[in-house]
Amino acid sequence: MLKKILGFLMLIVIAANGQTIDLSKFDTNYYHKYKDKNLSVNVYNWGEYISDGSDGSLDVNKAFEELTGIKVNYSTFASNEELYVKLKVGGIQYDVIIPSDYMIEKLIRENLIRKLNFNNIPAHTNIGKRFKSLAFDTKGEYSLAYTWGVTGIIYNNKLVEEDEKNIDWKLLFDNKYKGQILMYYNPRDAFGIAQAYLGYSLNTTDETELRECARILKQQKPLVQSYVMDEIYDKMESGEAALGVYYAGDSLSMIDSNPNLNFVIPKKGANLFVDSLCIPTSSSALELAEMYINFLSEPEIALANIKYINYASPNDGAIAIMDSETKNNKIIYPDQETLDNCEVYITLPDKTNILMEDLWNEILSNDSTYKGWTIPVSLGIIILLCVVIIVLRKMKKRDN
Questions:
Q1: Cys staple from 145: which of 46, 117, 225, 314, with CB 3.0 to 4.6 Å?
Q2: Are residues 167 and 155 in contact, defined by beta-carbon separation less than 8 angstroms?
Q3: Which residues is 41 bridged to in the sheet?
Q4: For residue 143, which of 81, 99, 82 has the smallest C-alpha distance?
């Protein structure tokens, strides 16, 4: 009788707000390997990027712990660059990380992530073929796709009186919307918009093209209400701004809060991003990391995550059991014609990154023409003050 009761309890994991999942569907021979070993796996992910039991969702990490007996030490980062610094500096050991496309390529080049042993990740077969050998990991050896999506324009149709077919990048540079435009507060995405608008590659390394992008971004600056990242939620949901740029999945959350909002992927093209599961070379819990990656690649778990974060799934198994409303949502799953105009970021040469960063700093400065002479003038004032202080000290010594 006791075995039957324990068996029944193992079948169901109850999330914080009641969502359940039948754990009997999973391969217990695989997942119970370390059941009573008192082990843990360290996971580093984007914020709000896993189903966590809130709002009636499944608590994925709790389900993994219940199934495997392995504790999940979970922490979050806000940008790929923050993740990179943590890995580069060391000190904190992570076993599973979820970086984006261009950062994955950088991590591969710098030997900060290791090749995956797909024999230990049998659920990898659920990931669609077109997500297995992308530009940032051409042989598909170091990463396994977790989510994907596109960037685009989110706008308030009460404030932007344009036909949907006319919603394009050009509106972000239109004086008609002065003071109502929200732009990305990071150079890669901001330059990406300018590049798409001008018809350049989102991975251009041409200095002339980058300087032309900087020129139009400088011209745009007086039109911009604010440079934002997550702050866009409050501003768009409250109607404080007319239009902005963000990621497709996140736009759905804003649209839920304000039905006047809509999202469009410009026909000129946009960034198609892929976030993937990777294992740092510094991990000392390789098999636990592989098991966690495998768990996230199970169709039921992938579906729970997608329902929670509203991004697109590369998991064919999850799509097969997905409701038709989600599957046919063109914001999450754009048609092929739209995707053909999108481009995945790759890692740029250091020279290009430095140039882009310098140009971006000029754009964000209060007055780039003023910037050139403020430094020497400031130095001159400092030197003059030092001379005055020295003279005063000598005069004081004479008086004594």
A1: 314
A2: yes
A3: 72
A4: 99
